[in-house]
Design goal:
The chain is of the alpha+beta class and 297 residues long. It has one domain (2-50, 76-295): Alpha-Beta Complex (phage-related protein like fold). 29% of the residues lie in helices and 31% in strands. The chain has 8 helices and 13 strands. It has helices at residues 2-25, 93-98, 101-123, 129-132, 146-158, 172-179, 182-185, 194-197, and strands spanning 31-40, 45-51, 74-80, 85-92, 137-138, 167-170, 207-210, 221-226, 228-238, 248-253, 259-267, 272-285, 291-295. The strands form 3 sheets. Strands 1, 4, 9, 10, 11 and 12 form a 6-stranded mixed β-sheet that branches. A 5-stranded mixed β-sheet has the order 5-13-8-6-7. A two-stranded antiparallel ribbon has the order 2-3. A hairpin with a 5-residue loop joins β10 (248-253) and β11 (259-267). α1 packs across α3. The chain is globular and about 80 Å long. It starts with a helix and ends with a strand.
Length: 297
């Protein structure tokens, strides 16, 4: 009976981990991201298509001449799946019997959130001056407002970004600066109450996303704009080898296709039900004009 209850409780925690992970990993929607529950082995290569920024110039059609077929202006980035990152827990028979469902759900969400934030920081370590050039904005949070966002949008316009696919990811201090802006606070006339919701509405064409995972990268990074082409990423389910003795070994697939792998087993020697939830992923710099950095200094 204890082992059966342990399985039920671990399923509750695992689903909560997936929910916490999916919520925190949401800013990756701003990249060309390939989430998949397909099985894979560490070290396998995943090919992700990307659009190039250089589009061939239109040609003049000469009478009776053949059409000159231009390049598709896209290529593929090969990503090698790296070392998995994981969270884990072990619950003995006593803990299982005394833990409430609510406590386990909160525990699971915190686990998933921490895993996602760690992965985001790893991927966003690519956002450097060397990879994406000089910052589009430099300044303290106290100086940041909607006019600065307009200036970043101008840089994006100059780089011929798609006006319908723009994201602005900011650290909490810079999100707070926008929340305090009079122009943003006074959005009730447009059917949006920023003070009540705490959300920033579409701003100068950007979907504004707060994130506490933006790494400084040794360059005072506090946020960035993205058109989805700056970093290519891929995620897969890492399948165990054949002949294993796991109680469960399966993919957990959340909203948007976010994929985690679950491994569960019961140790009869210790009376502990053990679970690992892991993510195997890869990333690579994509198009150098596809990210505009914001730095504090």
């Amino acid at each position: 009976m204890a082992n059966s209850i342990a399985g039920i409780n671990d399923d509750i925690i695992a689903q909560a981990v997936l929910e916490g992970y999916t919520t925190a990993i949401a800013p990756l929607v701003s990249f060309a991201t390939d989430f998949s529950s397909e099985a894979a082995r560490r070290g396998e290569k995943v090919s992700i298509m990307r659009d190039n920024t250089a589009i061939d110039t239109p040609l003049d059609k000469t009478t009776h001449a053949d059409y000159t077929i231009q390049d598709a202006d896209s290529d593929a980035v090969e990503l090698t799946l790296g070392q998995p990152k994981y969270v884990s827990w072990g619950l003995d028979d006593v803990e299982i019997a005394s833990s409430s469902v609510l406590t386990m759900e909160k525990f699971g969400r915190r686990k998933g959130n921490k895993l996602a934030l760690t992965i985001l920081q790893d991927i966003w370590s690519e956002i450097t001056n060397a990879n994406f050039g000089a910052a589009s904005f430099t300044g303290a949070a106290s100086t940041f407002d909607e006019d600065d966002v307009a200036d970043v949008a101008e840089d994006c316009d100059s780089a011929d970004w798609d006006p319908n696919d723009r994201y602005l990811i900011l650290t909490p201090a810079y999100i707070a600066a926008l929340r305090k802006s009079g122009a943003i606070k006074d959005t009730s006339g447009y059917g949006f109450n920023a003070i009540m919701s705490g959300d920033i509405p579409m701003l100068h064409g950007f979907k504004v996303i707060p994130s506490n995972a933006v790494p400084a990268n040794g360059e005072n990074l506090v946020g960035f704009a993205s058109d989805g082409k700056g970093i290519a990423t891929a995620f897969r389910y890492l399948q165990p080898q054949a002949g294993h003795n796991y109680t469960r070994a399966e993919a957990l697939v959340g909203e948007g296709g976010a994929t985690l792998g679950l491994r569960n087993w019961y140790s009869e020697d210790s009376g502990v039900n053990k679970t690992v939830v892991e993510s195997v992923y890869a990333f690579e710099t994509g198009i150098g004009t596809g990210i505009k950095r914001l730095v504090s200094a």
